[in-house]
Amino acid sequence: WPPGVTLPARTALRMIHQQIPSVAGLCGYARVTSAAWKGCPSAGRSAYAKGHQKGLDALLPPRNKEELVCEKAASIRALHSAKVVTIRPHLLMCAVCQYGDGLRPPYAEDNLPEWLELILHKNPDVLIKMARQADWMMCAPCPHRAATLNACVNVLGSGGLSNEKRDLDMLQILGLEFGSTMKARDLLRRMFARISSTQAVCVRNNGCPSVWWDGCGEYNLKKGNVSYTKGRRELMKKLAAVRHKTPGAS
């Protein structure tokens, strides 16, 4: 950090917790060279170590479980009744990765499996609208969603810069923009035709700590997500099977 840096509190706390496991050499020293370098009296009392051991939940409490359950139920009702379903662009790929991993409804942490189930088994022509940030309809039950920011704070507590970049890359590849609306199966077919690997969108080469870094981005440095490849293949077959189905058909 340079002098004068300004960060969200959650980002600062997460960086400190990650990068500073001990105050040895910062607040106290093994060898006192002068009165000016005696260090803080608390440095040798394990106070920081005890606080660090408690983890960040003690300082940044996670979302309440009851709240997440309520948000899940409310957003699923909205999903099934909506004439237009909203989703942030890069979650299209996440949904396919989850499908390739074998995730099926119900899933507690987002509504992507339920979204695919709606498309595959009830309404393949439901309208899908590209939404900004951590849109409520898909992300309502996510433990990492900050409702006041409408943002994902899973990467060092930031406002989701890495995910916002993925959204923009997805929109550019698909030739769409925020607010664009398409029938679900047409949208998925366009994505499958233009994106064969998650590397096109998900790769990140920024070192950690960085608000641009996350585990998915690091994984994609060497190869694309194999779950996307598997999910893409399976869903292409599924979409072919529902080609002539009408909305509401089982």
Report on this model:
By secondary structure, this protein is mainly alpha-helical. Helices cover 44% and strands 6% of the residues. It is built from 11 helices and 5 strands. The protein has helices at 9-19, 47-54, 65-81, 91-101, 112-121, 136-139, 161-174, 184-194, 199-202, 215-219, 226-241; strands at 84-87, 127-130, 145-146, 151-152, 181-183. The strands form 2 sheets. A 3-stranded mixed beta sheet has the order 1-2-5. A hairpin with a 4-residue loop joins strand 3 and strand 4 (151-152). Helix 4 (91-101) packs across helix 5 and helix 4 (91-101) crosses helix 11 (226-241). The radius of gyration is 22 Å and the shape is elongated. The N and C termini lie far apart (56 Å). The model has no long low-confidence stretch (mean pLDDT 92).
Give a quick rundown of the structure.
44% of the residues lie in helices and 6% in strands. By secondary structure, the chain is mostly helical.
Overall body shape: elongated
Count of helical regions: 11
CA(first)-CA(last) distance: 56 Å
What is the structural class?
Answer: mainly alpha
Uncertain ranges: none
Q: Describe the sheet with the most strands.
A: 3 strands, mixed
Mean pLDDT: 92
Series of secondary-structure elements, N-terminal to C-terminal: HHHEHHEHEEHEHHHH
Main attributes of the structure:
250 residues; mainly alpha; 3-stranded mixed β-sheet; two-stranded antiparallel sheet; 11 helices; 5 strands
